[in-house]
Design a protein that fits this description.
The protein is of the alpha/beta class. The chain has 10 helices and 13 strands. The strands form 3 sheets. It has a 6-stranded mixed β-sheet with strand order 2-3-1-4-7-8, sandwiched between helices. A 5-stranded mixed β-sheet has the order 10-9-13-11-12, with helices on one face. A two-stranded parallel sheet has the order 5-6. Strand 2 and strand 3 form a beta hairpin. Helix 1 runs antiparallel to helix 2 and helix 2 runs antiparallel to helix 3. The mean pLDDT is 88.
Length: 331
């Protein structure tokens, strides 16, 4: 029986044979396995792909345990309520934005490709923190080979562009190529009919930096025309602070996160340490996060806040929580 391999499978196979980095080979193999038609004629090929995949995964685990290889530049340990990857062309001001939004101290200079490695920092959003990761510049023919893996692993992408860039279309083509290689579909953008099954939908925001140099918005209009129309476009200034106060809450809301506060009967809620959950989480999800055993013993809960019908409303374990709810768990 013929295998009937699709053009998408053959493209993934070509990427596998051309790949030199371990993570790139893994990514291509996983896509090949997902795209491979499943029938009797492909059983042997399925087995061969699984063996290659298992071998690569085993090699990766062995290297990680042995410590023979240096730190993986594509991996930045996630902290806080979520992780955003900052990407952009040379001199767009990514490092300046990281410094303005967090307590990180990246190297900042007026020459291109100053940033050589991933640089994380924590941005405070009210009473929680969100992680931002600065990355090396992206340009046509010059993208770090590990950057697509880092972008794919992040929860969201902040694309930083220079509002008065000389070649905004060329800059955007390099960013679009990076998103494609990372298998990232910006939320709100139509999914292509021939899309890879590994394509991951994520929030992508475009930050038009240096808007302080564009008082009448002329350059911002031109920069806006260069990027995909579905993407949120936010003029900001890392040096003067324009737009940063409006950006901070979006770093949390765009990731689909909510904050929930707990309280003990007869005591005020702990407003300083909220639990962070994904939108749509239930009382049971919160109980499991507080303590694994608590979810099994949960009897009911009481909630306070703008979304409660009345203060102290009694709800069951399946009740969907909202941002800034106060919850009292009863086991």
């Amino acid at each position: 029986m013929p295998a009937n391999l699709t053009p998408q499978y053959k493209a993934a196979e070509a990427r596998y044979h051309a790949a030199t980095a371990h993570d790139e080979k893994l990514d291509a193999l996983r896509e090949m396995l997902a795209l491979l038609p499943k029938h009797k004629g492909t059983e042997k090929l399925q087995g061969d792909l699984r063996k290659k995949l298992a071998k690569l995964e085993e090699e990766g685990e062995h290297v990680a345990k042995s410590g023979h290889r240096g730190p993986d530049p594509a991996h930045v340990h996630k902290e806080g309520a979520g992780q955003w990857a900052l990407v952009g062309p040379p001199n767009a001001g990514k490092s300046s934005l990281l410094a303005a939004l967090t307590h990180a101290h990246p190297e900042i200079a007026d020459y291109p490709f100053t940033t050589r490695a991933a640089q994380p920092g924590m941005a405070t959003v009210d009473d929680v923190q969100v992680q931002l990761v600065d990355t090396p510049a992206v340009a046509a023919g010059h993208t770090e080979p590990w950057l697509p893996s880092l972008v794919r692993a992040a929860d969201g992408v902040l694309v930083v562009v220079e509002v008065d860039a000389d070649q905004p279309e060329e800059d955007w083509r390099a960013i679009a190529d990076l998103l494609e290689r990372a298998r990232v579909l910006p939320r709100g953008r139509a999914r292509p009919a021939d899309a890879s099954p590994l394509l991951a939908e994520k929030p992508v925001l475009v930050l038009a930096n240096k808007c302080d140099l564009d008082p009448d918005g002329t350059f911002a209009t031109l920069a806006r025309e260069a990027v995909w129309p579905e993407l949120p476009f936010l003029p900001v200034s890392a040096t003067r602070g324009d737009g940063l106060d409006a950006l901070r809450p979006r770093l949390l809301s765009e990731l689909g996160r909510i904050r929930v506060y707990t309280k003990e009967p007869g005591h005020p809620p702990d407003q300083g340490r909220p639990f962070v959950l994904s939108a749509g989480a239930t009382v049971e999800d919160l109980a499991r996060l507080v303590h694994g055993d608590l979810a099994a013993r949960l009897h009911f809960a009481r909630i306070w806040g703008a979304h409660a019908r009345f203060e102290g409303q009694q709800v069951d374990r399946h009740h969907v929580l909202e941002d800034r709810d106060v919850v009292e768990l009863h086991a």
